[in-house]
Specification:
The protein is α/β, with parallel strands linked by helices. Helices cover 27% and strands 24% of the residues.
Length: 337
């Protein structure tokens, strides 16, 4: 499958090309790739070098994305490519997102083949995950178009580091997104991810208020980095004010990885504390991930407290939810059901 021309770039007077997909604005000479690795200056154009090539496929529970309010209990076809436009020192998928070799892209698949794969597996949704899908926007959008034509849903698992114009196109073709809000301090973003917090906050507000995409948020709590009660409180207050208390928030436990092997794993009590802070601030749906905590994984009606969806890892029981409504008090549970 030949590499297609990428969108969102322009030619400079110097003869170089500038990529305009994300705020890095990589300036490339002929033969050079951007920091993401997959967008390259070839034949005087910007090309997407990973179109139609995947680092692998998997069938997952939708809750693994994590999405707890988007067709809970269903499965999803997950796939990604290679590369990333962030430089997270704590990357959980570094073998894929930090890859600089094409040999990680072992499988070829056109958008039609991917959708057919999902249909054959009887999965109602397709997830762009493992590495950040904004860097392979053209491929993801083509898959999403094909999926919608066949009645399937598409999900983006992303850090949300993307410029306004491509942001509009990308999310126009998504049905749901889990966006990482990695911290609530600019210094953390700059030192540990090489990016800026402001862009991510703009993406979150755009997705929530300007699209019909179902939105959930994940924050990976890293000991001594972004886990103080003050920072968690500020993060939750921002979500409540700017997005609304109904947006689900997932606090996830860090495990030593990539360039942060010497940082200890997140203590369980840190997650419990974070969840309590979020609930005290008024967020309705706060979940815990990467730990075994059935209470912190289950969904409760924010009005009457009834357990609507019981989760024990990926064992799901829908107890008191019918057509997205609490069977006890008739309160609507936000989401897609």
């Amino acid at each position: 499958m030949s590499n297609p021309e990428a969108r969102y770039w322009h030619r400079l007077s110097s003869g170089q090309i500038q990529c305009d997909l994300c705020p890095r604005f990589c300036t490339l000479q002929e033969g050079q790739s951007g920091l993401c690795f997959v967008r390259a200056h070839q034949d005087d154009r910007l090309m997407l070098t990973t179109y139609g090539r995947s680092s692998g496929f998997g069938i997952d529970p939708i809750e693994k994305k994590p999405l707890n309010h988007f067709y809970p209990g269903t499965t999803i076809l997950s796939f990604g490519t290679a590369g990333c436009n962030l430089t997270c020192k704590f990357c959980q998928n570094a073998d894929i997102s930090k890859a600089r070799e094409m040999d990680v892209l072992t499988k070829t698949a056109s958008p039609k083949e991917i959708v057919e794969m999902a249909i054959q597996a009887n999965t109602p949704s397709i997830a762009f995950t493992y590495n950040d899908p904004v860097i392979f926007l053209e491929y993801a959008v083509d898959v999403a178009k094909e999926a919608r034509s066949k009645g399937l849903h598409t999900v983006a698992v992303t850090a949300g580091y993307i410029n306004p114009e491509p942001r509009m196109e990308f999310f126009d073709h998504m049905d749901a997104a889990n966006i990482d809000l990695k911290a609530f301090q600019e210094d953390f973003y700059l030192r540990l991810t090489g990016t800026h917090l402001t862009t991510v906050l703009e993406t979150l507000k755009y997705v929530k208020h300007k699209t019909r995409v179902w939105l959930e948020i994940t924050t990976l709590l890293i000991p001594e980095m972004n886990d103080s009660s003050e920072e968690i409180r500020r993060l939750c207050e921002w979500i409540a004010k700017e997005l609304g208390p109904e947006v689900p928030l997932h606090f996830s436990a860090f495990r030593p990885s990539f360039k942060m092997q010497n940082v200890p794993a997140t203590p369980y009590q840190t997650l419990v504390r974070a969840r309590q802070i979020a609930k005290d601030i008024g967020l309705h749906y706060v979940y815990l991930g990467n730990v075994h905590d059935p209470e912190g994984q289950s969904t409760y009606c924010h009005k009457c407290g009834t357990c609507l969806i019981k989760r024990d890892w990926y064992k799901i029981q829908i107890l008191a939810l019918k057509n997205g409504v609490c069977s006890h008090c008739q309160t609507v549970l936000p989401g897609r059901f």
